[in-house]
Structure formats: structure tokens, C-alpha cells
Design brief:
Elements: E1 2-9, E2 12-13, E3 22-28, E4 34-41, H1 47-56, E5 61-63, H2 69-77, E6 81-83, H3 90-98, H4 108-113
């Protein structure tokens, strides 16, 4: 089973991993359909706490804005697929991911202004 974690700020992907205190988690079935969705508010913004949550929750994919190399390398070493430098509403980002069209550096805000 795949589990996706998106760091969020208000309704968008949080611009920085280390300052994110709210996360959205989606669990997918074998057909890549969402079977569970939840939003979790962390007690504080801590990249260490977030890494611990990612590993303890069995997260397979992390979608975020900017992430420090130290945490990127650690989570990548732990076999978490990371799609970073993503900008946009987290629901739209999740939709792109489910369609297999989300890439590192995706900027949905830029695409909207370009028409």
C-alpha cells in the first residue's frame, strides 16, 4: 500500500519542509485510489519530528516545497520517494500525483497565471 504525505500551509503545499506543522496523509489501494485521508496538526514545526512521523506512519512518498539536503538524503536513504519544490493547492497536487503527472519542481501557481 502506498501512503502519501504532503506538507501543507493553509490550502497549499508548505513552502518549507522544516517549518511545516500541518500534514495531509492519503493511503492508496492497489488501484491507486484514495482509501483514507487525514490531516494531522503537529505540536510544533520540527523536521526531526516530521521525519519520525514519516517513518513511523509508513509513508512511501513525500510531497513538499523546499527541503534541506540533510533531511532529503536521510529520507531518501530510508526509501521514501521525495517529490520536492512543488507549489500549488495540495488537493490539485495530490490529483496530479494520482494521475502519475507530478514531477519535482511542479508549479501550479505559475501554470494558472500562464493560462
Amino acid at each position: 500500500m502506498e501512503k502519501i504525505l504532503i506538507t501543507i500551509y493553509e490550502e497549499d503545499v508548505a513552502p518549507r519542509f522544516d517549518l511545516s506543522s500541518v500534514v495531509f496523509i492519503a493511503s492508496l489501494n492497489d488501484k491507486r485510489e484514495t482509501i483514507e485521508r487525514k490531516t494531522i496538526v503537529l505540536t510544533s514545526a520540527s523536521p526531526e519530528e516530521l521525519c519520525h512521523m514519516i517513518l513511523s506512519q509508513g509513508i512511501t512518498h513525500l510531497i513538499c516545497g523546499g527541503i534541506e539536503d540533510e533531511f532529503y538524503q536521510y529520507l531518501n536513504w530510508k526509501k521514501v520517494e521525495i517529490i520536492d519544490s512543488v507549489i500549488g493547492h495540495y488537493e490539485e497536487v495530490l490529483d496530479l500525483f494520482l494521475k502519475g503527472r507530478l514531477e519535482q519542481g511542479t508549479n501550479l501557481m505559475f501554470q494558472k497565471t500562464q493560462g
